[in-house]
Write a structure and sequence with these properties.
Shape: extended
Largest sheet: 2 strands, parallel
Distance between the termini: 37 Å
Strand content: 5-15%
Number of domains: 2
Order of helices and strands: HEHEHHHHHHEE
Structural class: mainly alpha
Helix content: 40-55%
Oligomer: single chain
Radius of gyration: 26 Å
Length: 247
Amino acid sequence: MLRPGATEPEEREIPKDPPHIQRLFRRLQREGPVQACYEAGVSGYDLYRQITACGVTCQVIAPALTPRRPGQRIKTDRRDARKLVHLFRAGELTPIHVPDEAEEAARDLVRCREAVRRDVVRWRHRLLKLLDRHGRLWVAEKNWTQRHWTWIRPQHFALAALPRAFEATVFALEQALVRPAELDKEIATLADTVPYREPVGWLRCFRGLNTLSAMVLLAEIVDFQRFAAVEVRPDTVGQVRVTPVAA
């Protein structure tokens, strides 16, 4: 906390618990206007909603755009808090757009689908490495074709422990392969509801964009009006020049 006229901040540590947060900000509000900020990250946006519910102006800061001194690599909670409070007062921080709860839920859904897709890649690597370590190498054609799966499933190991590891890995991979299709259906259902139906239809007019990619764009960007309009025209040497114009 950096009080008016103070050059050194006060430090206090409280749990991320709504009653503690509400008591702190209501006590500070009795002393005068209060503004708050914190870096986007694991705290999510629930902390923002708790603070604004107390009538306090709060900004969520983009960590990648926070100014840093050359050579300053060590990050701790205390150092970050002291730096943020000084930069916040100086107006040197860049806030991000905070989605509402429905927008955040849609973003979590499309990000969950991407996380599951990465899980599929990881389990495929684990299965191939397990087989390779024990001399089982598929060289007939590309991996993960129907013939490849037909070769994988009947693999037999003499030692008792290996079949259990093999079966568990195959089972985990098969489960991971099912989840993206289920999530695709959930995303498609969400895309057919308001407020996504119309903008998804607009984005699908662009070549290469389907429902899933349109929903990813909408969930991550949320509001395209946040970006300045640009005018695109060729320059004198035939390259493209992009010039910001008034919205």
